[in-house]
Request: fold
Amino acid sequence: MNIFSWIFKKHKPKEVLAQSQAVDDFLNGDKHILTSEDIDPEGTALFEGYQKAMLLKKNGEYEQAELILLKSCEPPSIYKGHYRELFKIWRKYNRDDIKLKKYSEVSARVLKMVKLDEEMINGMLDYWGERQNKTLPKAYFDKDRNLLVSDAKALKKSSEILEDTDNLELAIQLIERFAVK
Reply:
């Protein structure tokens, strides 16, 4: 038994993914170049979308960038940078909406940020836990969260003005979580 047989036997993936025709052609010697798109078309598409979103954002086209980034976060993924950049756009919107006294929009947006951030962390826990073949502690990726204290403060301010006690309690919990760090 060679070392590769032992590794693949010991770390056999739980689910075997179907290979693309390009990978089969490469393995059969019919194709001489293998691209990332051949191996992971979904990941490649997400990366290309991210690059396009960054270009749009750089050019001030925030709404189009937001749509692309939101698409890459739903369904949840482990690509932290997509969430980080989406949240940066939403923070800009929140600052503008607070000035315009659109507090319900701010609250809804921050609640969506909390939900997406939690889904991302859960996705990372599942993905890396499976690869390491163990259950990771819930707080394992807490330093990878994309929420900032400014998001919690925006939720607190909008909740106070809207007299929304449920969201106010959540905002206080989030602020306390940041104070512990």
Residues 9-16 have pLDDT under 50 and may be disordered.
